[in-house]
């Protein structure tokens, strides 16, 4: 069994140049599949479509996530393609098998009043509060990813014109509003120097060690203020990005513009926010219209 798996992984490595993590996923999926076949006295060379379906049902009974089952099926497909290519089998049992549908989860968002409560509760008179307020305001004003936020450098900010330069998967220029500009100005002009330990440090947002703020550090910050604002929702740093997009679309922004600001390569990813707003409007109508 090991030789079959190693030959399969070697073929993938040569043809597709996959990452180590992806190869490990393929290896894990195929080992689990071959173990299942062995326990049920089925030779992998004689597997039929019904055996694959039975395996999928087995994974469902094991309460595996739909995404996990879908990935396992993709691994098995790749496995049999390699076996056919190498003339080990002549039949592909995965042909015409559909992957389980992965239900799109609607992202968690804050209402506008919740965002205002979260951002107004911060004390900006001292360095930590000024920094935290600037970070949260920029995140909500631009919808950038947390990684992009903590990777911002001082030179990426233009307060006079009112934009930030974001160097994510693709560089993009994103406008920021007056409140975010004021918060950034307060932090840069009055408080950033408090955190600076090395004058050559270019990062915009620094921790108490004078180093670039980390994702984990920012996670703790947003959790702290969410608790302080008594917001009873599971909030992550991505929540403000989702809220940014949803509020723009709710107030009439077109999908293409929101897609560009978010840095989505595919507009279908942005479409989920429009669907969410549509569903919410339907719920409001049903709850409030006397004849709904």
From TrEMBL:
One of its GO terms (biological process) is chromosome segregation. It is found in: Cytoplasm. Residues 105-286 form the Tyr recombinase domain. Pfam families: Phage_int_SAM_1, Phage_integrase. Residues 1-84 form the Core-binding (CB) domain. CDD domains: INT_XerDC_C. One of its GO terms (molecular function) is tyrosine-based site-specific recombinase activity. The active site is at 145, 238, 241, 264, 273 (o-(3'-phospho-dna)-tyrosine intermediate). Coiled coil: none annotated. It comes from the Bacteria. SUPFAM superfamilies: DNA breaking-rejoining enzymes (SSF56349). PROSITE patterns: CB, TYR_RECOMBINASE. The keyword Calcium does not apply. Keywords: Cell cycle, Cell division, Chromosome partition, Cytoplasm, DNA integration, DNA recombination, DNA-binding. Its main location: cytoplasm. InterPro entries: CB (IPR044068), DNA_brk_join_enz (IPR011010), Integrase-like_cat_sf (IPR013762), Integrase_catalytic (IPR002104), Integrase_recombinase_N (IPR010998), Integrase_SAM-like_N (IPR004107), Recomb_XerD (IPR011932), Tyrosine_recombinase_XerC/XerD (IPR023009). Site-specific tyrosine recombinase, which acts by catalyzing the cutting and rejoining of the recombining DNA molecules. The XerC-XerD complex is essential to convert dimers of the bacterial chromosome into monomers to permit their segregation at cell division. It also contributes to the segregational stability of plasmids. Forms a cyclic heterotetrameric complex composed of two molecules of XerC and two molecules of XerD. Belongs to the 'phage' integrase family. XerC subfamily. This is Tyrosine recombinase XerC. It comes from Caloramator quimbayensis.
